[in-house]
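Why does residue order matter? Because the sequence determines the fold. Keep that principle in mind as you read this record.
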Amino acid sequence: MNFSHYFPVWDQLTADDQDQLTGAAVCRRVKKGTLLHSGAMDCLGFLMIQSGQLRAYILSDEGREITIYRLLERDVCLLSASCMMNGSQFDVAVEAEKDSTLWIIPSETYRRVMARSAPLANYTNGLMAGRFSDVMWLMEQVMWKGLDQRLAAFLLEEAALEGSDTLEITHEKTGNHLGTAREVVTRMLRYFQSEELVRLRRGTVELTNIPGLRKLAEK
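Structure:
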């Protein structure tokens, strides 16, 4: 496995540091729906996605989910190893949205190499800053954009990920991504259908007016 695909600073690490990371990495195959990490679990480690798709999300006290970001092939997830960042641990859950193959570097190994490698430490700090930026962007969307805009943007993103204008996704799952109730999503999708933006069938949402959805998402 060529870890340089995941670490832009790979060539700046010493041979010993490279051997430490590759020697400790474990390949794991997980099924769709597998919960890989949550704030209540032990620190999992540094995740590298070889194939498949993961979702990172936060959970409210009422049990409502909202997606922070998706992880695709060659993406990495540091929040699942956040306990190695000065002993902090974040209440973020990570689940497999599709059957996936991952490489996992144990937190202790990653922390040990990071402590003696300035390039890896700088790369890691950049990753953390980028993920916090994702969270801040999400909060801005929730606070300042209407659900119609966010739902339109989500449908377009989902269509791009799946490579299809017909999405096999439930209203409940859509609500989990957006942090809202299934009933609210149902009402909004019915409104979209009345505006001829989508066509609803049991278990599917067909995007019938991509330009219209894009205009709504960008307003």
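Residues 118-144 form the longest helix (27 residues).
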